[in-house]
Write a structure and sequence with these properties.
The protein is α+β, with helices and mostly antiparallel strands and 222 residues long. It contains seven helices and nine strands.
Length: 222
């Protein structure tokens, strides 16, 4: 009787089934493709010097939308440079991040924005390692990253975060002040099969899933 009632209610959409955690692999694959476009090719926008100075990277795909109020949402990953760990690339496994806010799109032409944040110091990396919302423009500030074609031989980082964006296939500057980044705990739990914090993942002590090696291979220059 109970089973029959359950099936009847389900047929009318009146039963709430347990939500399934969204797979993180697509955003790992997407982040690998985005990063490869930014750092390789005939005219890479992120110089090897900038990448070498990075203590961490945030890689996102963001979609703008809205009729009266323009907002944005997206997802991606964060990785940290390590001295050891499960993979010989010198980078940690990726942790999932989502983003939202009205900061995107004010200087970009398209509805889809690809974003790479180069974190150059421990303070910026620490902010992005928390298990709470991170509001860009508060404690964290950044500037448009130097183009690889203009970077000097003796360049050293002077900003905690360098911002690189691409919209409609064009690289350029983008204001992201007020944008909120947030760890995706459910995706990390599903991907790693255990409850792990962003900081634990970035420590390099969490085993890298086979699917994440596509991103770490890009960081290795493959």
């Amino acid at each position: 009787m109970i089973k029959t009632l359950f099936l009847t209610l389900a047929s009318f959409g009146l039963v709430l089934l347990p939500a399934q955690a969204e797979d993180m692999q697509p955003q790992v694959n997407r982040s690998a493709a985005i990063l490869k476009d930014f750092i390789s090719g005939s005219n890479p926008v992120i110089s090897p010097k900038v990448l070498k100075a990075a203590k961490g990277l945030v890689i996102m795909k963001v979609t703008r939308g809205g009729l009266i109020f323009t907002g944005s949402s997206g997802d991606g990953v964060i990785v940290k440079r390590t001295t050891g760990g499960w993979f010989s690339s010198g980078w940690s496994a990726p942790a999932a991040l989502s983003t939202s806010g009205a900061g995107f799109g004010l200087q970009a032409g398209g509805e889809v924005i690809e974003l790479v944040l180069v974190l150059t110091n421990d303070a910026a990396l620490n902010e992005f390692s928390q298990e709470t919302e991170i509001k860009f423009g508060g404690e964290i500030k950044g500037t448009a990253g130097p183009d690889s074609s203009t970077i000097s031989e003796n360049w050293t980082p002077t900003a905690p975060v360098y911002i690189y964006t691409r919209s409609d296939g064009l690289f350029g500057g983008l204001s992201i002040k007020g944008t909120v980044f947030e760890p995706e705990k459910d995706k990390n739990l599903s991907y790693y099969g255990q409850a792990v914090t962003t900081r634990e993942i970035l420590s390099g002590k969490v085993k890298v899933p086979a699917g994440a090696k596509i991103l770490l291979n890009v960081l290795k220059g493959k």
